[in-house]
Specification:
With about 375 residues, the chain is mainly beta. It has helices at about 5-20, 100, 360-370; strands spanning about 25-30, 40-45, 55-60, 75-85, 90-95, 105-120, 120-130, 150-160, 170-175, 180-190, 195-205, 210-215, 230, 240-250, 265-270, 295-300, 310, 330-335, 340-345, 355-360. It has three helices and 20 strands.
Length: about 375
């Protein structure tokens, strides 16, 4: 049974490709160095109560998690920026290092993805980090390489973004099953019914894949519910090894969606392998995606079909950088009165990954959804 008719799916595909335009994108925040292994991103953009924009992300420096910290600094800093000119420029207002996010016996080895969620009471900051002090599940300890840690997700609650205090950090999700050993890359949003939906990626103990899991905090509740590991299975072609949801947009109810149920467009990262695959000499040359160099796709669901999600990019990725490795990942979208601001990490000719931004006005969005 289809979720939406083919015409609506085609409109969603056109919308996704309009919002993530590799050629219209401009650099919002550059990495610390213009070299492979350096990037800024893996966060999101939100609008504050006074109309200003806030952007969170992490600075990543060169390093390799397979061999431990001796290979480089890796995720070195969580930074929050503010823009008073609707995203034309950003100024850093908060900075948290690994030591700021460590607590107890859990020493942060690398800062991973973060996510800002505005709430009626203020803001929640979700942050994933690689930590020492978290062991692999019993019976699998030998698979944890020296100098590496385990990924988990923490949460900070604050009255405002400016008042985020890392000393109030609390653990939220930690893996104990070898199939889902690592939890990272949180994405959180409030749905049309007031529930808080938390999506995040998981990795097994052997790092063979990257998957997406789901937990929901019902409206009015304080705790998240059971974890659903099966709602978004890996794909079959370009996303067979990695299927990581990274952003969400409530589709404007215009055009073919004017009378449709609330519909959510999801952006996700995919890859054919966790490592760079060797190509046949006569094969079609194309980016295949691999860990830290994923490509981008899109999927959707409606309020009536959730948590069943339908892929749009079933055979090939939608989003590929024209530069470097082709990497285009961690796409997020912010809907405002004037249109949608989209951000993502985009591979450059030097193989660095700055955070880039693209704005699409409300009139253009209505035109795309009315075709």
């Amino acid at each position: 049974m289809e979720i939406l008719p083919n015409s609506a799916e085609q409109a969603l595909e056109s919308l996704a490709k309009t919002l993530v335009d590799q050629h219209r994108a401009t650099v919002a925040v550059p990495p610390l160095e213009n070299a492979q292994g350096f990037w800024f991103g893996a966060g999101n953009l939100v609008e504050g109560p006074e109309g200003g924009f806030y952007l969170c992300g992490r600075y990543r420096n060169a390093g390799d998690s397979r061999t431990g910290l001796a290979a480089g600094a890796r995720g070195a800093e969580l930074a929050i920026f503010r823009s008073q000119d609707r995203g034309k420029s950003f100024q850093k207002i908060l900075s948290f290092l690994k030591s700021d996010l460590s607590y107890g016996a859990k020493e942060v080895l690398s800062i991973e993805r973060c996510w800002l969620l505005p709430t009626p009471a203020g803001v929640e900051l979700f942050v994933s980090t690689e930590k020492a002090g978290l062991s692999y599940p019993k019976g699998y300890e030998e698979f944890q390489k020296p100098g590496t840690g385990t990924w988990s997700i923490d949460r900070i609650v604050a009255p405002s973004i400016e008042e985020i205090d890392p000393s109030t950090i609390r653990p939220l999700l930690e893996g104990s099953d070898p199939r889902y050993c690592h939890f990272k890359d949180p994405v959180a949003y409030q749905d049309d019914r007031g529930n808080t939906v938390l999506m995040f990626s998981t990795h097994p103990f052997n790092w063979a894949s990257s998957n997406t899991a789901l937990s929901v905090r019902p409206a009015g509740a304080e705790e998240f519910g059971p974890i659903d590991h099966a709602f978004f299975p890996r794909g079959f072609t370009w996303d067979v090894a990695v299927s990581r949801i990274c952003g969400v947009l409530l589709v404007p109810q215009v055009g073919v969606f004017k009378a449709a149920p609330p519909t959510y467009l999801y952006f996700y990262d995919g890859a054919e392998g966790m490592r760079n695959l060797e190509e046949h000499g006569k094969a079609v040359k194309r980016p295949r995606g691999y860990s830290c160099e994923e490509l981008g796709g899109a999927a959707y669901c409606t309020a009536d079909s959730f948590p069943r999600i339908e892929r749009l990019s079933t055979t090939l990725p939608f989003f590929v950088s024209p530069h470097g490795t082709g990497c285009s990942r961690y796409t997020t979208a912010l809907q405002t009165g004037e249109g949608v601001y989209t951000t993502w990490q985009q591979s450059q000719p030097d193989r660095s990954q700055p955070l880039v931004m693209c704005f699409t006005g409300a009139e253009r969005i209505e035109s795309v959804l009315s075709r």
